[in-house]
Design a protein that fits this description.
It comes from Formicarius rufipectus. InterPro entries: OTOR, Otoraplin_SH3, SH3-like_dom_sf, SH3_domain. This is OTOR protein. Pfam families: SH3_2. One of its GO terms (biological process) is cartilage condensation. The structure is a single chain. This protein is α+β, with helices and mostly antiparallel strands. The chain has a domain at about 30-125: SH3 type barrels (Roll), CATH 2.30.30. It is about 10% helix and about 30% strand. The chain has one helix and seven strands, in the order H-E-E-E-E-E-E-E. The protein has one helix at about 1-15; strands at about 30-35, 45-50, 70-75, 85-90, 100-105, 110-115, 120-125. Strands 1, 2, 3, 4, 5, 6 and 7 form a seven-stranded antiparallel beta sheet that branches. A hairpin with an 8-residue loop joins strand 3 (about 70-75) and strand 4. The longest helix is centred in the first third of the chain and has 16 residues, at about 1-15. It is globular. The two termini are about 35 Å apart.
């Protein structure tokens, strides 16, 4: 019993010394994006990576030269920002990355096949990660 109490006191002391982890605020990449539908769920095109890209933060995906990527949305370029698309890697050899959707620079890929036009302009949103 005293072991449990000591462990509880130790954990409480550590909690008081270390504040709760908080999310890091990151600037929005754009205010609008182009999609095929209102929810950006449908694939716009299939692109092939022309160069390797290492993701700079959790919003982006790593891509390797030659990799195929499903494109779901294209951010509307704003002054002082790069041009990014959102997508997911495709193919059995990249199975561990399939289903992960993230941004990548559009300048590093070439569109191989357009499935449908990205003619819906949708505002980008910021999710509130704090508890209500």
């Amino acid at each position: 019993m005293t072991r449990c109490v000591h462990l509880g006191v130790l954990l409480l002391c550590l909690r008081l010394m270390c504040p709760l982890a908080r999310g890091i605020f990151m600037d929005k990449l754009a205010s609008k994006k182009l999609c095929a539908d209102d929810d950006c769920l449908y694939t716009i095109s299939l692109a092939r990576a022309e160069e390797d890209y290492n993701a700079s933060d959790c919003r982006f995906i790593n891509i390797k030269k030659g990799q195929l990527i499903y494109v779901y949305s294209k951010l509307v370029k704003e002054k002082g920002s790069g041009e990014f698309w959102a997508g997911s890697v495709y193919g059995e050899q990249y199975e561990d990355h399939m289903g992960t959707v993230g941004y990548f620079p559009s300048s590093l890929v070439s569109e191989q096949h357009v499935y449908q036009e990205a003619n819906k302009t949708v505002p980008t949103t910021v999710r509130n990660l704090q508890k209500p």
